[in-house]
Amino acid sequence: MSEQARGADSRTLARWLPLAGWLEHYDRQSFGRDLLAAVIVSVMLVPQALAYALLAGLPAQVGLYASMLPLVLYALFGTSSTLAVGPVAIISLMTASAIAGMTGVDGAALSTPEMLGAALLLALVSGALLVTMGLLRLGALVNFISHPVISGFMTASGILIIASQLGPLSGLSLKGGNLIEMGQSLLALPTGIGIHLPTLTIGLGCWAGLILARRHLKNGVMALGLSETTAGMCCKTTPIIAVIASSLLAWGLNLGDQNAEHSMALVGAVPAGLPVISLPSFVSHDWSGLLMSALLISVVGFVESLALAQTLAARRRQRIDPDKELIALGLSNMGAGVSGGMPVSGGLSRSVVNFDAGAATPLAGAFTALGILLASLLLTDWLAWLPRTTLAAIIIVATTSLIDIAAIKRTFRYSRGDGTALTITLIVTLLHGVESGIMAGVVISLGLYLKRTSQPHSALVGRVSGTEHFRNVERHAVETDPELAILRIDESLYFANARYLEDTVLALTADRPSLRHLVLACQAVNLIDASALESLEVINERMTAAGVKLHLSEVKGPVMDRLKCSDLPENLGGEIYLSTFDAWQALSIHGSHCGQACARDGVSQTAALNG
Amino acid sequence: MSEQARGADSRTLARWLPLAGWLEHYDRQSFGRDLLAAVIVSVMLVPQALAYALLAGLPAQVGLYASMLPLVLYALFGTSSTLAVGPVAIISLMTASAIAGMTGVDGAALSTPEMLGAALLLALVSGALLVTMGLLRLGALVNFISHPVISGFMTASGILIIASQLGPLSGLSLKGGNLIEMGQSLLALPTGIGIHLPTLTIGLGCWAGLILARRHLKNGVMALGLSETTAGMCCKTTPIIAVIASSLLAWGLNLGDQNAEHSMALVGAVPAGLPVISLPSFVSHDWSGLLMSALLISVVGFVESLALAQTLAARRRQRIDPDKELIALGLSNMGAGVSGGMPVSGGLSRSVVNFDAGAATPLAGAFTALGILLASLLLTDWLAWLPRTTLAAIIIVATTSLIDIAAIKRTFRYSRGDGTALTITLIVTLLHGVESGIMAGVVISLGLYLKRTSQPHSALVGRVSGTEHFRNVERHAVETDPELAILRIDESLYFANARYLEDTVLALTADRPSLRHLVLACQAVNLIDASALESLEVINERMTAAGVKLHLSEVKGPVMDRLKCSDLPENLGGEIYLSTFDAWQALSIHGSHCGQACARDGVSQTAALNG
Questions:
Q1: Which segments cross the bilayer (chains A, B) (predicted)?
Q2: pLDDT tens digit sequence for B72-101
Q3: Residue A178 touches chain B, beta carbons under 8 Å
Q4: Which residues of B touch A445 (CB under 8 A)?
Q5: B470 and B356 share one domain
Q6: ipTM of the prediction
């Protein structure tokens, strides 16, 4: 096989298996970088995996299982060299909410086999949806979730996650998927059952330690002579220190003994060994509810994951293929669904650490999976002693970065509509849960966009003296003509604003009895649909009846192509001009008054150029 | 009270009660015209009212009741002088479908008191929704039903109505709200129960008579020396002749006798007298289903009614106020709901006859109500003998005009998207009923619009030699510059296409290593939302990193106002030019090369003009 043929062959393979693209250049240096990154990410991932499983209302080991096969699958199919896939906070919160809906059991209660089955089915279906979207090349669909909606959703999710962890942190038993339910469960607590001081003490201790480490450890380590990047990575591994210290404390004081005075909730027995590969056995009674939950989980997971992967890739001038990412993330989730896991996505903090640690290829992810595998074979006896309050503290610290209150003000300052979408998403998420929140956000942002386009801005324009440029008569000092009105329409013309256009034009002509020519300047009209075409015909008829000639100018190629399939150009009272300046020259008293012949030239020129 | 004060006073009153606007000028001539129109419309309305009540699966007299109070209310509150309100075909079909959903009883069965109660509640709720929309000034909402969707819906409804009348016409018992259900009910008929020949004979006889009258009677009457308009109105009253003739036949041959050989379905006992004013007693078990049905009925009724009123008003150079029409039609429906009626709307054929007969004011409608009142006091004994097959023939002839198959081809020729929306609406309505059809149409047309705007057209433009005009390099012979790319973006920038813009721009710069300046020509950008702003910031960063300066030109006033609230103008690698020609002059090798100073001028000019 020639060199060229082999190159072409591996490129074809790489289209479906990105692995094929980079594996042939894999060398010892890349191996070393990947291995180092994997060790650091594994140390971060163990406590996070346990914590997010508990956040989803599932047994702790589910988090570990979700950090093995999915990572290997992403390494094979993913296009990002640094994205660290696994359990993440928001997806775990959404999983908890979806499981509560599917099983009728609230996420904060002790997990049942039914809930575990529901989580597996959810991961499998989410994954299948993502793969399907990828095969259908529907990656662009996620664009319909706007940035303000994502921002509002993240902030609200952060607040909900923190609120949900206040229970485990303090020993209180709180339940619910939104602030209202949590408040109700707080009020419904039997008198006498209050905050458990030993639990709260350890939890707050861990929290304070993690916060202090985040703020000051980096400078301290840098003072020891390490580089800033290395120091930063050291700080990211402090949660494992909290885990080890509090587990030792729980073991030393025998805090797990139910009869002891200071007994508290520990992670408890984690079965050692590997997950069993099998299909989920849970049978849903509400498939449409399951599908909706799975769709929202997959879309939110993908949006987050893709944004993260693209940001990191841009720093290294690499490219991310959204459709391939859909397939990779989908297969990861399907993998989680058949190997005892839970829905997964790309994790922010772990991916950044992976990037900083120099991960060279997706193999770093596969090595991380190996690390988690070792942990679940060797460390389970120790993890059983881990107090739940420590995990709550870790989640709270990790989640604080999701909350961005300043974004509300910033967005409102730029645009009231975007600010409204953000705020409504935020409020609905807080008061009615994550699924309602994201749906409300999508609906409200689409609604606001449609409302805006249904009442288009339009402006009477005049000529900027000495140029061929035309601007709004109310904003600029421009030349005008009482017999000629040039109306610039600042929107595509489609069914939602067709009638609005009729009203605008008729009001304009009613106000100007001296009018003889009306030019619709169409440089901002990117579409004229069948409804708008009918409206233009109506306008043309009424203008003709009123003795006013209707002209068009600057009709774009694709729009003109369509108009030629209709009777409008033929029936039009006036002409179609290539540019507004041509119309001005032909029709205005300031123009050159070359008259009808010149206007006809304009039309034939347009026809020739567009043809 | 001075003349002026009285004028101002009556104008204020007229804002809420259009009646006050025309009543003071009412004279004997208007009275005569209104009375004549009312007589003709009443003669048309009696058989139609009976027929549409049966079409809705309700007792015949419901149609008469729906033609009294609602007409009086419209006369008081409506703004159209010629719209004839009452039972109409499509609304009756939708009512049948909604009643079947609310009661579980199929519309074609014998009507029960429960069904009547459901119809009353439906009219009341539809009316209340319309009034609410009117008070909230939501008249523009109906614009979201595009013309192709209305066209497809009307054609499909026409086919469904005709199909539903084939049963009564032939004596077969067919049920169902769509073609599939009707086909199933045809196949499920017990063997031996077939077409009833005497019924079919009378039905086809009426049908043939009506068709012939429609085709030839007008010329015949005109030959007698009557004017074309009068002849046209005569033809519209032929249904009453069919009614009288077939009733006499049924009475003469005693066709209603169950024991007689040729017995057939007659309208039967119609209670003489006036409807009782009372609130509907039906209690719905499915309020969200009822609300959805009522919403669709009110929206479809309003869209049809408004389009009709506006068309007729335009011929007399009168104006229709959509929000007042909402209130008037809403009150009419509420009136129907409390007076034993059914949902009503503006009827096409009757309104046209009303217009042609010279109706001068809405009082014509009130006089029509009086005519129907007289009919229901005096004619009920005679109407009992009317064969149902006659009414089926009348409906079929009246409905044929709704079907417009040519529109499908015409719409497809103009635009594939619009054609698709029309076809899907048509097919879903035929196969799944009227409510699903109209909803599918709205969703599909919004979806197609969003899909289109999410993948915006953009074009590299160059200068049309000797002008300040810039056009697509692929369509026109224009000047270009290898160091300067001017990209015209043909769409507002918002969340759904923000990422698409990033991809387009990055692909463009990747292909052109010699590029030093990129100008985004924004004359077609009517909105930059918060998501798109972030994308522009990302693009600006990447361009700067790649050594390319990003410029903007022709940013419109409202868009510029917003951008000034962001950091983009400050962080932009390049400048913001008033016109694309300014950018060309400053940046192109063909330009005047006045350089940086000139570019700065452009910005300050923009700032000054927009400020």
A1: 35-54, 60-77, 84-103, 115-136, 148-167, 187-212, 233-253, 290-314, 357-379, 391-408, 420-450
A2: 999 999 988 889 999 998 899 999 989 888
A3: no
A4: 495
A5: no
A6: 0.76
pLDDT for the residue B368: 94
Q: pLDDT band at residue A279, thresholds of 50, 70 and 90?
A: confident
CA dist., res. A334 & res. A312, Å (int): 25
B-chain residues near A610 (CB < 8 A):
475
pLDDT: is B600 or A552 the higher one? Answer: A552
pTM of the model: 0.78
Q: In this structure, which amino acid lies at residue B139?
A: G
Residue type, A397: V
**A542·B314 Cβ contact <8 A:** yes
Distance from CA of A536 to the nearest CA of B (A): 13
Q: Which residues pair with B552 in a beta bridge?
A: B520, B576
Contact (CB<8Å) B414/A490: no
Last residue of a domain, one of A396, A420, A444: A444
Domains: count for chain B: 2
Residue B341 lies in a domain: yes
In which band, very low, low, confident or very high, does the pLDDT at A260 lie, cut at 50, 70 and 90? low
- Do B178 and B138 share a structural domain? yes
Residue A592 contacts B where some CB pair is shorter than 8 Å? no
Q: Are residues A368 and A241 in the same domain?
A: yes
Nearest CA in chain A to B507: A319
> Per-residue pLDDT tens for A104-120?
765 445 567 888 889 99
Q: Same domain, yes or no, for A434 and A463?
A: no
Distance from the Cα of B476 to chain A's closest Cα (Å) equals 6
Which residues 6+ apart lie within 8 Å of B598 measured at CB? B585, B586, B592
Interface test with A, best of B452, B495, B559 (most A CBs within 10 A): B495
The range of the structural domain enclosing residue B171 comes to: 12-436
Whether the predicted pLDDT of A4 surpasses 70: no
Question: In this structure, are A267 and A366 located in the same domain?
Answer: yes
Of the three residues B436, B468, B492, the one that is the final residue of a domain is: B436
Query: Reduced to 3 states, what is the DSSP secondary structure of residue A444?
Result: helix
Residue A168 above 90 pLDDT? no
CB contact under 8 Å between A467 and B496, yes or no, is no
B534 contact A CB<8A: yes
Backbone angles phi and psi of A192, in degrees to 5: 100, -30
CATH of the domain at A554: 3.30.750.24
Within this chain, do residues A422 and A485 fall inside the same structural domain, yes or no? no
**First-to-final CA distance of chain A:** 48
Cβ distance B135 to B64 under 8 Å? Answer: no
The confidence score (pLDDT) of residue B607 equals 37
> In this structure, are A392 and A530 located in the same domain?
no
CB < 8 Å to B565, chain A:
413-414
- Asked if residue B609 lies in contact with residue A475, where contact means CB atoms within 8 angstroms, the answer is yes
Q: Does residue A558 fall inside a structural domain?
A: yes
Mean pLDDT to the nearest integer, B367-376: 92
Distance CA B377, CA B46 (A): 12
Beta-carbon separation of A454 and B140 below 8 A:
yes
Structure tokens at A533: 């075409």
A453/B566 touch (CB, cutoff 8 Å), yes or no? no
Distance from CA of A162 to the nearest CA of B (A): 27
Same domain flag for A428 and A494: no
Q: What token pair was written down for A327?
A: 């397939």
